[in-house]
Amino acid sequence: MLSRISLPQPNIEDGSPNPRFHSLDLTIRQNRNRQDALIEVLHRAQEQFGYLEKDVLTYIARELKLPLSRVYGVATFYHLFSIQPKCKHTCSICLGTACYTKGGQALLDILTKELHLKAGERSPNGKVFLRVERCIGNCGVAPAAIYDGHVSRQQSPEDVLAMVKGWMEEP
Ligand code: FES
């Protein structure tokens, strides 16, 4: 049952089952009939695998008998889920209305121009993940950037560039 997908199989050499899939299967069985089964199962999968890669989402869709598009849609809608390996650092730029009108787009643009970072992607060296938020509910600090979960107020393009560049150059 577990050999249908090509995920890392740390225990495959000795023939024992992959405990991460065992735990995921258990969660699927326990939640199959619940309305929020998909969220529960995605949580468990992320706990087990670190992030939700396509093979895991395909497996979940098949086991819960849901369209892959729906599973993928939920996995990408909620920020607590990640479909890529985690980076050491995350920079979020708020592009809600208040931040956008006070220059939020320029924060994003300088990262793309100077560091070739794009929203929703990891940096080429895998150290920084850049994402866009749609209002973090703190519009008085616009334009805001969130560095590793900490909100920084009234950021300039130079501020954001210095912070993210520093991360990228870390050994
Ligand atoms: S729009 Fe950025 S915090 Fe509200």
UniProtKB/TrEMBL annotation:
It comes from the Bacteria. Keywords: 2Fe-2S, Iron, Iron-sulfur, Metal-binding. Its cofactor is [2Fe-2S] cluster. Transmembrane segments: none annotated. It holds the Pfam family 2Fe-2S_thioredx. SUPFAM superfamilies: Thioredoxin-like. The keyword Metal-binding applies. Belongs to the complex I 24 kDa subunit family. This is Bidirectional hydrogenase complex protein HoxE. It comes from Pseudanabaena yagii GIHE-NHR1. The gene is hoxE.
